[in-house]
Design goal:
Shape: globular
Distance between the termini: 13 Å
Number of helices: 9
Largest sheet: 7 strands, mixed
Radius of gyration: 21 Å
Oligomer: single chain
Strand content: 25-35%
Helix content: 25-40%
Structural class: alpha/beta
Length: 343
């Protein structure tokens, strides 16, 4: 049986197909799953190194959807033929692109019958990130105002839909004319789509005008520009000072920027607003067993909202398994934010 792995420790990550053998005897709490679809996201090699996971070959593909074939002696949540979905832990020895994988039952939830494997595998990670940002970090509530940067991305779209469902007034930014049209046609609709691809400097003035000068309660970014000088890669990203400036009193800024640097004036402005800054790391849910029950509750809620149409991810065109290596190289270079492989 073959799986996709990343050969680390070289100048540029190289993705290779390797043979993998599952043990004959299934562990007590393990579930053997036949994988139907697997989502591909960029590997965070620095994060893996920081948490002490150092291997020559790193399994690729962690968001999986499939059917249970066999259960361990002490498994209580699942039975053979159950359709399941989940995210493999960081230290999993299995590649999600294998035909069969063994995974602990506490990382899986039941998949609703009407939800396609490709859809849920492609959107589960972003749904988890959006749920973590809005509920866990920002304490979202009806009547709040929210600014989502890059609303056309998979993560941004999940944030918008989840917030609208809970009665939050949403502002967002678009990076292309096509995204702008798509976001304006969303239902339920957002309050304002700001075309930063036309003029980045409009962000602060438009948000303050739309909120009567009060600012927003929550800001969720997908990257931040730390310097005034723009590069081709960062020209559409907001400057950190603009994001602090659009926050209202007592506001929450949830950032995906792993190396954010704040200067004393930035901290002073946050202090004056009594605002908070939180770093978004959705991997933290599996870092402690104390959070396991809450994590499973979140996964269940996400797949239920997908099945009922509350969360409607943009459809990802599934690629066949033989294209997985080339596709993952494209994803890792950030030329494509997401991909789904159908097995």
């Amino acid at each position: 049986m073959k799986g996709l792995y990343c050969r680390a420790g070289v100048a540029e990550p190289k993705f290779v197909i390797q043979e993998m053998v599952l043990p004959d005897v299934l562990g007590c709490h393990l579930v053997r799953v036949q994988v139907k679809a697997c989502g591909l996201s960029p590997l965070d090699l620095k994060l893996l190194n920081d948490v002490g996971i150092q291997r020559d070959l790193i399994p690729v593909g962690r968001e999986v959807s499939g059917v249970v074939l066999q259960v361990g002696a002490k498994v209580s949540f699942f039975q053979p033929q159950d359709e399941v979905v989940g995210i493999l832990p960081l230290d999993s020895p299995c590649s999600g692109l294998c035909e069969l994988i063994d995974i602990d039952e506490h990382y899986l939830v039941q998949k609703p019958e009407k939800l396609s494997p490709v859809c849920v595998a492609g959107a589960l990670r972003d749904g988890l990130s959006a749920y973590t940002a809005l509920h866990t970090h920002a304490r979202m509530a009806a009547g709040h105002t929210l600014l989502v940067l890059d609303g056309g991305s998979s993560f941004g779209l999940m944030c918008i839909q989840l917030a609208c469902y809970h009665g939050v007034k949403v502002f967002t930014t678009s990076h292309t004319a096509e995204e702008h049209t798509f976001l304006e046609q969303l239902r339920p609709s957002v309050a304002k789509v700001i075309p930063v691809y036309k003029d980045q400097s409009e962000l602060l003035s438009v948000v303050m005008e739309e909120t009567g000068g009060l600012g927003v309660d929550i800001v969720i970014d997908s990257g931040v520009r730390l310097q005034e000088k723009e590069s081709d890669e960062t020209k559409l990203l907001p400057h950190k000072h603009d994001l602090i400036s659009v926050l209202g009193v007592g506001g929450h800024w949830v950032t995906s920027h792993t190396e954010l640097q704040l200067d004393p004036p930035d901290c002073r402005l946050l202090h004056l607003k009594s605002a908070s800054l939180t770093f978004l790391n959705h991997e933290v849910w599996t870092a402690s067993s104390a959070q396991q029950g809450r994590y499973l509750h979140i996964l269940k809620d996400i797949v239920e909202k997908m099945s009922t149409g509350v969360l409607r991810p943009r459809p990802e065109e599934a690629v066949p398994l033989y294209e997985a290596t080339v596709t993952m190289e494209t994803v890792q270079r950030h030329q494509k934010k997401k991909a789904v492989v159908q097995l």
